[in-house]
Amino acid sequence: MACFSVASSVSFRDYSISQEKEARCIFEYIYFARPDSYIDGVSVYASRIRAGQFLAMDSYVEADLVVGVPESGNAAALGYAMQSGIPYGNAFVKNGNVGRTFIKPKQSNRESAVRVKLNVLKEAVNGKRIIMIDDSIVRGTTSERIVKMLRDAGATEVHVRVSSPPFLWSCYFGTDIPQREQLIAYNRRIDDICKIIGADSLGYLGIDRLGGLVKGKKICTGCFNGVYPIEPPAGDIRGEFEQ
Fold this sequence. Notes:
Elements: E1 11-12, E2 15-16, E3 24-25, H1 26-32, E4 38-39, E5 42-43, H2 44-58, E6 65-68, H3 72-84, E7 92-94, H4 107-117, E8 118-120, H5 122-125, E9 129-134, H6 141-152, E10 157-162, H7 190-197, E11 201-204, H8 210-213, E12 219-220, H9 222-225
Parallel strand pairs: 3-12, 6-9, 9-10, 10-11
Antiparallel strand pairs: 1-2, 4-5, 7-8
Helix pairs in contact: 2-3, 4-6
């Protein structure tokens, strides 16, 4: 579990971190933690349900079925369905032996991993308007591929809803987020991202909704707004990686 809390006067890479500077990584609730986890007394599963409910309140669209991208998108999809009244269903079969696609070093690696990781249940989506709930969009590779898979399986419309705000900044505290220039939301409007991933519509969770996910607990939202619990390093401390 990511938590930025270090005792006073402890120095790490020339950074002295005050004990008051403490915040939980919001992505523990959105993505990383198991759904049966409790962090600071807050249920991860319940926080994901709330994210889906907020999406339905703020970004409703008419459709026939709400589906989640496994696994972390499932609870948010259920929350969207509960709030909107649109039926919830399963549209994907997941290969659990494939890791996180967004951290693969090459574009070709990411595309092939997505093809192996997920398969679509054609009988579940054929002829239907689908709302697809995912936890995040990083580079856009995964979302673009999954939208195409749904269309190839016969979905007449694919509306993408994301249970986090747009990624706009790098993370220096543990989440493997690429440099800003590699983030699909960097210097792009939501309409532009929607076209790139091939969706009929696209909606993100509002950053003002994050506090409601965690019942007011202190969280780090630096990857969304560039505001970090401590001053981040001036340069990229992760080294050089093959793009």
